[in-house]
Amino acid sequence: MAVSARMFTETMSRTPAPVTVATTTTRDGRSWGFTASSFCSLSLDPPLVLLCLARDAGSHTAFTQAGVFLVNVLAAEHAHLARHFATRGGEKVATSEFEPCEKGLPGLHEAAARVACSTYDILAGGDHSIIVGLVEDTHIGDRPPLAYCDRTFARPVPVPAATTTGVIP
Q1: What's the first-to-final CA gap in the chain, in angstroms?
Q2: Any keyword Oxidoreductase (predicted)?
Q3: Domain assignment of residue 137, given as a range
């Protein structure tokens, strides 16, 4: 039995995800960015990450041809940037608080973390492209990360240690 698109998206909305803004700059000097919650580590040796981008996204060609990209892991106070970069069209990077960071790519100095990559591979993934990046530089910030779950932005909160009964208070 095939799962409906509605049921699939409803189920996946229950899975907490990081909130990132990926950026790149094309050879003509134009900067591009998009909000990505489909970002994760892939391999330790070599260090690889992946992010997914809709094939019909306005920034798809830029990201699949630029050869480099920077993933900005948004801090808890950056929900407005996630919303801004999730919209279609327009020059998003020029109207935001991004400045040159690793590899000279647009980055957010106050990000929870940044991951600079060269494109390692691009794979087909249904209506998305899976962009695999070879990690070449990183930055760890001092702010807590932003997460997305149940169609809302959230901050990760530590879970108290289990009691002797195994029940979490």
Answers
A1: 39
A2: yes
A3: 17-154
Q: Where in 28-165 does DSSP place strands (E)?
A: 31-36, 39-43, 48-54, 68-73, 99-100, 106-107, 113-125, 128-140, 147-149, 152-154
CATH code of the domain in which 47 resides: 2.30.110.10
The pLDDT of residue 164 is above 60: no
Euclidean distance between CA atoms 62 and 104, whole angstroms: 16
Total domain count for the chain? Answer: 1
Asked if residue 168 is part of any domain, the answer here is: no
Q: What amino acid is encoded at 96 in this protein?
A: S
Peptide bond before residue 46 is cis, with ω within 30 degrees of 0? yes
Among 146, 81, 144, 136, smallest CA distance to 108 is for 81
Residue 28 is predicted with a pLDDT of: 92
> Residue 29, by phi and psi: left (phi above 0), alpha (psi -120 to 50) or beta?
left
> What is the Rg, in whole angstroms, of the alpha carbon atoms belonging to the chain?
17
The predicted pLDDT at position 36 comes to 94
Residue 151: CA atoms inside 13 Å, Cβ hemisphere, count? Answer: 3
